[in-house]
Design a protein that fits this description.
This is F-box domain-containing protein. The protein is mainly α. It has helices spanning about 10-15, 25-30, 35-45, 50-65, 65-70, and strands at about 45-50, 75-79.
């Protein structure tokens, strides 16, 4: 049997996932590789952090290993 993700184009899945609560996007990352890719793009598109320790962790994530590819996903950043 096909998974539900094969029923829709990625663009439709992305449009649907934009309506998800941002707190649910990390959970979607755990469900499949396809949903992980889409949810990750949504998570990193607009980043807003509230304090210096979180900013430091975020910057470190973007600098290390696969994090450098994540930096390309960030479109807006606010503190």
């Amino acid at each position: 049997s096909d998974s539900i993700t094969s029923w829709f184009p990625n663009e439709i899945l992305s449009a649907i996932m934009q309506f998800c609560d941002p707190k649910d996007l990390p959970r979607l990352c755990l469900t499949s590789h396809l949903l992980k890719n889409i949810a990750t793009r949504l998570l990193y598109h607009s980043v807003s952090l509230s304090d210096a320790p979180r900013v430091a962790l975020f910057v470190r994530t973007l600098q290390e290993g696969p994090g450098s590819a994540l930096a390309l996903l960030v479109r807006t950043f606010s503190v």
